[in-house]
Each structure stands twice: as C-alpha cells, then as structure tokens.
Amino acid sequence: MKDLARDLGMSVSTVSRAFYPDAAIAEVTRQTVLKRASEIGYRPNPFAKSLITKKTQIVGMVVSDLTNPFYPEVMTRLTSLLQKQGMNVMLASAEHPDGIDEAVDLLLMYQPDLMIVLATNLKSHARERCEAAGAPVIFFNRLSADGLGFGVSCDNIKGGMNAANHLVDLGHRELLYVSAFPDASTNIERRQGFCDQAVARGLNPPQVYEAGWFTYEAGYEAGLAVKDLPRRPDGVLCANDIVAIGFIEGVQEGIGLKVPKDMSVIGYDDIAMAAWPSHRLTTIAQPLEEMMDATVRLARDLASSIGHEQHILHIPPGPLVERSTVADRRKHHD
What confidence tens digit (pLDDT) does each residue in 291-310 have? Predict the structure, then answer.
C-alpha cells in the first residue's frame, strides 16, 4: 500500500479504498490504482483479509457421486458462476457416502463461508456441525434426509408424472420404474410421481426394479433382469440418464429386445451424453440454469450474512426432450 501510494502520489488511505468495491472513491482513481497494482504484481492476500472481515470467500463443495456425468457438468458450471460472484470453490469428494463426514471435517478446517452439498444425503449431525461453525449448508438436487437446511431441487414428483403421462398418452400399458439409490430424495420423488400418476391414469401400479445405484453398471444389470420380471414392460422410466443408457444396452445386448420397438425408455436429467447419436435418449430435462441461478443467489446472500429462513426451493422440471427411445403404441390398442 505504501509503495503504491508513493508511486502514484496518493495517500495510503486512498489506495486502500481502491481495493474495496463499496468504498467511496472516484472510479478513475480506483482504476488508476488497480492498473498500477497489476503492473507491479500486487495481489491482495485473501487470508489476511479474512482476519479482518471474518469471511474467507470460500465455498466448500461436497460430492460423492462423480461417476454420474450429471454432477461434473453441474460442478463446472456452478463453480464458474460462484467465481463470478467473487467466491472460490474448495471441493471435497468422498468415494462412498460413508466418507462424507471426513470430507466435511476437511472443508471445515478452512473455515468456508458456506457449504454446497451435491449428490449425497448429509447426515443431520454433519449439517449441524457445519452450521455451528458458521457455514450454512445448501443442498443441490438431492435434499437433506431430515428435510431441514437450505435446498434447491427440481420438482422431481412433477417430472415423474410427466414421464408417466407421456408413456400413457402414447399407448403404453405396462410400466416399469428402474429405481436407483433408495435413500436419495431424487429417486424417491421420481418414483412417487411416476407410479402415482400411472395409477391415476387407470393403469396397474408400475413394477419397480431396485438397481441400487445411479450408475451405468446398475442400469445394465437392470436391463438383463427384465427377463425375470413377472410381466414384460412396454414403457420404462429410469432414475436418471446414465442408468437409462445402461438399461437400454442391457436389454438390447443381453436379452435381445429392441428399444423402442419392444420397449420404450425415458431417462432423467438430459446430460450431454443423452443427445449423442449413439444414445439419442428421450429424457426429462433438469431445469439446471434456474437451479444454479437460485443456488448462487442464495450462496451470495448467505456468504454476506443476509438472513434467510431455512427453506427448500422446488423448481418445475424442464421439458420432456423427445429423441429416439420412445415409440407410439396407440395403433396397437385401437
């Protein structure tokens, strides 16, 4: 500061104000200081600054499902949006849900202003530990098992209903839901919306196959298991896109059925891979832009200590994206 002030012929207090966006200083003066600071390689020390402001500008991000292509896409875009708000993301990944506590404890060592949790159900005591350390928790996509904290999610019940309506409207009569991680809020809600709406439309309750995980391998095994179901389905909703891609390949390569000729399949998320020519998966799109914008707004407010009552925001699902894995079966029922 003293070197800059002497170099520019300004007071130290004027130079100091140039580095605070809300400080009272002429814009031309601010830019003069910042330009010269950049030329001589000056960089503010965020750790020193945090001792004064009590804010680290660090957002801790916890994730345990990086094998699901949906979450790397989300992490990349969400990190960019947060950085534009002056926040820096520190990632902690756990290979298994049991490792989440360790990931949380690691992040808390760096005193983040808040935590964003992706793809995992953070246990209540871990969430409470974060809040006690002054780091409120935002759940993205999957929600807290106890329904508490802050959350931003797609309205997955409505998304499941939309998938059921699409299949019923196209003449499908025997439906199947391929379930993934049983405790995940996304899985529970999609299953509920799909199955309840099928019954409301006059069908028998859809069969449910428990694949166990949101993975390609789990979907492939579910596809092979179709041959052992009591009734062969003609319309299927999978818990997410990567499960659906695995399911289709299991059905076609493992037991010789064709999609969509013998069986229609819908995924959920609309990941980039779903549009690949090798897949062309019909799917329910997540409203990602709206979800991420809402998360960033909430993160900015919480990092700035703007008070919020804990709440869960459900955003309507995106459109059903029609590609090549659903057939029109109405002519078969005329």
Answer: 999 999 999 888 877 667 77
> Among 93, 94, 85, which Cα is nearest to 113's?
85
**3-class DSSP assignment, residue 224:** helix
Question: Bridge-partner residues for 175, per DSSP?
Answer: 235
**β-strand partners of 5:** none
267 backbone dihedrals φ, ψ, rounded to 5°? -100, -170
CB 140 within 8 A of CB 295: yes
pTM of the shown model: 0.81
Nearest to 243 by CA among 292, 195, 202, 283: 283
CA end-to-end distance (rounded Å), the chain: 82
- Tokens read off for 252: 């076609």
Please state, in angstroms and rounded to a whole number, the distance separating the CA atoms of residues 161 and 58: 38
What is the pLDDT, as a whole number, of residue 50?
54
Nearest to 259 by CA among 330, 329, 324, 176: 324
pLDDT in tens, 81-115: 999 988 899 988 877 666 777 888 888 888 899 99
Q: Is the peptide bond before 97 cis (omega within 30 degrees of 0)?
A: no
Q: Tokens for 211?
A: 């694949």
Nearest to 177 by CA among 267, 109, 253: 267
